[in-house]
Amino acid sequence: MGKVVMYASVSLDGFIADESDQPGPLFDWLTNGDVPLDESGSVTVSQTSFDYTRPYWDQIGVTIAGRHVFDLTDGWDGKPPSGIDHVVVVTHRPPPEGWDPEAPFHFVAGVEAAMATAQERAGDRIVEVAAGDVGGQMLAAGLVDEVRMDVVPVVFGSGKRYFGSVRAPHLLEDPDVVLQGDRVLHLRCRVRRSPI
């Protein structure tokens, strides 16, 4: 099985969106550079960000997201983002009315079932977990191997937290990647398996 990575762009004070679910300037780094990150040409980053992000994106087999993110993005119009093969949506509700049953989206109740579905689909590729409530639940359940953050120099003051509603402490290893891009700091830490 591939590793499980919790990921998102995040403000300095730990938020992935403001109170209105808007990312504000959190994604500005994705249009600040001159190196295209995907085929669309609309996502352009610094060379440092490209060298860090593109290989990671290429390893992702499945993304796990909550129903809230799915609804906010209108299900990415049935096409997984960034060339990912499958999206597993954690939800207790059925797919939206009129949803294409052939779209590579899997609607699953509970984080353990979502992880099992994702790992089966991903094989030895990375399972990416969107930060926020679902990511926090997966971290608390011991299902996350690594935390990746694209830290953006902005303070929101309130909003949607990177780790969702996690209340207990979780110790991570020292960052093994710390890279400065243009308007972003890329961090990667492995999750420590021993108790605090």
TrEMBL record:
Q: What SUPFAM superfamilies does the entry give?
A: Dihydrofolate reductase-like
According to the UniProt entry, its GO molecular function terms are:
5-amino-6-(5-phosphoribosylamino)uracil reductase activity
Note the InterPro entries from the entry.
DHFR-like_dom_sf, RibDG_C
- Pfam families, per this entry? RibD_C (PF01872)
Q: Which GO BP terms sit in this record?
A: riboflavin biosynthetic process
- Which stretches make up the Bacterial bifunctional deaminase-reductase C-terminal domain? 111-169
Designated name of the protein? Dihydrofolate reductase
Protein source organism:
Agromyces cerinus subsp. cerinus
